[in-house]
Write a structure and sequence with these properties.
Layout lengths: L30 H30 L19 H7 L2 H32 L6 H13 L2 H11 L6 H10 L15 H26 L3 H9 L4 H29 L3 H6 L11 H10 L4 H30 L2
């Protein structure tokens, strides 16, 4: 029997039993596909809730549509509503009233909120109780706050007039916070400041608590005074949080409606008529739906543009 040998003298190696098996083909969904499967419906719902009303409002702003006359012929009016709004002196007066309200509420809430946060951060005895007490106004409904302060502002039985009269020596019934042209803008500023200062305090308190203790210890080693530590450490490191609070409150106060509507309904006359109240009257009292849609778009563009500029400034401050 003839044996076949390898010319090189080496036999062919048998296949190894440890050879790695071929990779298995995955038949299921990938992680990315599963993630989109879960968040896809939610994103579609959010787009439908937010994007569609915006596009519909933009469309209506170029028409003569009135919600109380849905079957009337729809006519394209172009930019007539926008031109009429921007050339209306009454609209600019409402914007001035809104700017006055936004500026003073933000200023007072930022100063008082940061001061309260600085005091609460000292962790004095009973600070937990006082912190909870300070936060109570923020937890109330704007409707409750509006009715509550309407009672407080009553010239005959309201507590506010008696406190002012006691401290200033003025007869309590000699002035009306909600009925006086000069005092009514400050009346709504006081109420909004009372309600939302705790919100600013919480954000500023988070900024104060985020500052590491070793920075203050190093400053004490360098014999820096308390004022120097506040100016050089506390305020700069807490500034991004303060600016964030200003951003949030600025956006909210620019579209303030419910609390002011309950307190003064824009009066006396139109002294406290903010832009949101004017928008509501045009849309649901005069039924000028196309006109009010254009006004809403103008307000949206103004807030969105100012917020974008402010956010860029905030990012520069945080990058320092």
């Amino acid at each position: 029997m003839t044996s076949h040998t390898d010319p090189a003298g080496l036999g062919s190696a048998p296949p190894s039993r440890n050879t790695a098996s071929a990779p298995r083909v995955q038949t299921g969904l990938s992680d990315r596909a599963i993630a989109w499967l879960f968040i896809g419906p939610t994103m579609a719902l959010l787009l439908a809730i937010n994007l569609f009303p915006l596009l519909w409002t933009i469309f209506l702003s170029f028409t003569n549509y009135r919600a109380n006359r849905p079957n009337a012929p729809l006519r394209n009016v172009g930019f007539d509503h926008y031109v009429a709004i921007l050339n209306d002196p009454d609209i600019w007066l409402r914007m001035q009233a809104t700017a006055h309200f936004v500026f003073w509420t933000i200023l007072l809430q930022t100063v008082i909120g940061f001061a309260l946060a600085y005091l609460v951060d000292r962790k004095f005895r009973g600070h937990g109780f006082w912190t909870t007490l300070i936060l109570v106004p923020m937890m109330l409904s704007p409707a409750v706050v509006g009715n509550f302060w309407t009672f407080l502002y009553q010239p005959q039985i309201g507590l506010f007039n008696y406190v002012v009269g006691f401290l200033g020596g003025i007869p309590p019934g000699s002035f009306q916070m909600l009925g006086d042209v000069t005092l009514s803008p400050w009346a709504i500023i006081i109420v909004d400041t009372w309600m939302w200062t705790p919100y600013v305090m919480l954000i500023c308190l988070a900024g104060l608590r985020s500052i590491p203790d070793y920075i203050y210890e190093a400053a004490e080693v360098d014999r820096a005074s308390n004022i120097r530590q506040f100016v050089s450490i506390t305020l700069p490191m807490c500034l991004p949080f303060i600016m964030l609070a200003v951003l949030f409150r600025g956006i909210e106060n620019f579209k303030m409606f419910d609390m002011v509507n309950l307190l003064t309904a824009g009066g006396p006359g139109s002294t406290t008529e903010l832009a949101s109240i004017t928008l509501k009257r045009a849309a649901f009292e005069a039924w000028r739906t196309g006109y009010s849609s254009a006004f809403a778009i103008i307000l949206f563009v103004a807030v969105f543009g100012l917020a974008n500029i402010y956010v860029k400034t905030l990012n520069k401050v945080k990058a320092r």
